[in-house]
Amino acid sequence: MAGKLGPAVAETVLTDPRTGHERRRIALGGEPEVAAAVAESRAAAPAWAALAPRIRARRLLRLADLIEERSAEYVAVERAGTGKPAAEAAGEVENCADLLRFYAGAVRADVAPAGGHYLPGRESWVRWEPLGVIGVIVPWNYPLMMAAWRIGPALATGNTVVLKPALTTPDTALLLARDAAATLGPGVLLTVPGDRDTGRLLVGSDVDAVAFTGSEAGGRDIVTRAGLRRVSLELGGNCPALVLPDAPPDTYEALVRAATYNAGQSCAAPARVITLRENYLETVEGLAKAMADRRAGVHFGPLNNADQAARYDRIIGQSAAGIEHIAPLAPPPGEEGGHWRPGRILADLPPDDPAVLEEVFAPVLTVQAADDHTEALALANSVPQALAASVWGTRTDTVLELAGGLNAGEVWVNCCLEQTAELPHGGRGGSGHGTDMSVLALTEYQRPKTVTVRVGRG
């Protein structure tokens, strides 16, 4: 728990993914730390929930201001933990502040069902009440932004939060807890750094709900441990991109930019390009040319950690791709020992290739061909994940029909990986359930109570 950790049960060495060198050591939260954080959060919950929405909103706005005032510090530690280029890290700090401001306003709009005269001699209305203490567990690919997606609606609706960041990227979560204590009040947002065991302890503790962003395996484990408590899950992607023969001229560059943003470590990034046979070779060549201009170390950062680099190496090593285009590597001087991996285009793949079936979570695009639109949709929908997808073409009727046939929570047409606080984001199937962003996310952290009053003699 930020600022109040007891005797450390264990310590871990954190490395800089750009160099592979040690950057700091940090204590891992064990059972005493998790229990203390949840108890403090529980004690703070009644007063925080009792605040009028405008007061909570004002405090959230002050937290957003403080994050922006200290943006240089946030950017520096975010880069140290993730290796992101400065522009990416700065954009995500800005996004975090924007999300907090959005929910500070959204909670005052009151999206509850309207009350009224629904029964003879009675008046009814619906109260939306906070769940209580929310255990939030976020991944290492967007440490600050994923935290904002979860804590924004949870805090705005009157819950308190215990945040468990990923093992390799606790830095900005610790800053959030520090700045939240100064703006929201003590105990409203606490951070407990740690590993998977710390996360399991948090899920098993006296929290009222769990919000988790991470792997499908992690999500299944949380559902088992959470029992009957509310769980919101955003899991893997392995997202398809349908590229039609009449796709816009900038399609290949746009797909490669999206696939290499954050070194491809985004659940909503394109991963599997699916074409018709008539534009298959053209697409492979177009993507290869675009990828050759995107260099790890210049245009995007390294993979986050040694385990993720090993995953990339394993899947690429097992792939039976007959066509492979590899972009150059260009790590900065002195950073050659980092987890740098090049962008890749893989084509001429068997349908059961591991690069197709597994989410590589790296700057890799596979390319497959289909005989017609029906087969293209079947390939797109053939994996367990169903988070996001895109369609690229210029015939409105065709692209909208395909967008409707894609099994995904979010679909882009002639663009990709573009999101804003006003629009919901969430998955289906192996990509989990629940909603991030938009006013719809407010109900993830509330429960309705119907109140009916007798006002007549009947």
Q: Your description of this structure?
A:
- The chain is globular.
- The protein is 38% helix and 21% strand.
- It is built from 14 helices and 18 strands.
- It has helices at residues 31-50, 53-69, 71-82, 86-106, 143-156, 171-183, 196-203, 216-226, 251-260, 280-292, 306-318, 354-357, 373-380, 396-405; strands at 10-15, 22-28, 122-130, 133-137, 160-164, 189-191, 209-213, 230-234, 239-243, 270-276, 323-326, 344-347, 364-370, 385-386, 388-392, 410-413, 428-429, 446-454.
- The protein starts with 9 loop residues before the first strand and ends with a strand.
- It folds into 2 domains: 11-235 and 432-450, Aldehyde Dehydrogenase, Chain A, domain 1 (3-Layer(aba) Sandwich); 239-421, Aldehyde Dehydrogenase, Chain A, domain 2 (3-Layer(aba) Sandwich), CATH 3.40.309.
- A 7-stranded mixed sheet has the order 11-12-13-10-9-15-16, sandwiched between helices. It has a 5-stranded parallel sheet with strand order 6-5-4-7-8, sandwiched between helices.
**Could you describe the largest sheet, including whether it forms a barrel?**
7 strands, mixed
Count of discrete alpha- or pi-helical segments spanning 4 or more residues: 14
Q: For this structure, what is the CATH homologous superfamily of the largest domain? A: Aldehyde Dehydrogenase, Chain A, domain 1
Describe the strand arrangement of the main beta sheet, using strand numbers.
11-12-13-10-9-15-16
The count of DSSP E runs of length 2 or more, i.e. the number of strands, is 18
CATH architecture title of the largest domain: 3-Layer(aba) Sandwich
At the third CATH level, what is the topology name of the largest domain?
Aldehyde Dehydrogenase, Chain A, domain 1
Q: Helical percent range?
A: 25-40%
Domain Aldehyde dehydrogenase: 14-451
GO molecular function, one term: oxidoreductase activity, acting on the aldehyde or oxo group of donors, NAD or NADP as acceptor
Protein name: Gamma-aminobutyraldehyde dehydrogenase
Keywords: Oxidoreductase
